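**User:**
Everyone, produce one record:

**Assistant:**
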Amino acid sequence: MAGNQLTGVQVIVNNDTVAIVPNSLVYNEGLGEQKVHAVSVGDGEVEQVFAQDIETNFGMVKFDLRSNPSSIAQALVWKQNGNENVVSIMGENADGRLIRNFTGASLTSNYDVNIGVDGIINIEFHTNAPR
């Protein structure tokens, strides 16, 4: 079914609206990874055993910020907050509404601050699965 592309989604971190680089928002639902193993059932036959790897049931939200003193300060606070950040994304169009809330959000990796005319900061939060 074709529909309207969702654009202009709003990002809120710790109750503050964040100005992001357009088209840079990416997230995942935190559904984790599944594995399929083979077991021998005799006579050269195998069957599948399906397993959910619950260690991978984490969400992720990433987006880019323009490098300026305000966004650099924001990123520093988020990093210092550990996993106490809350990230919400929301948007809507004629086809419906998207709302995802990510708790336990942390910047687990160092982020690079690219200084220059086109400078950006890549932000990637690792989170609990969204609700």
Notes: The first helix runs from residue 69 to 80. The chain has a mean pLDDT of 93.
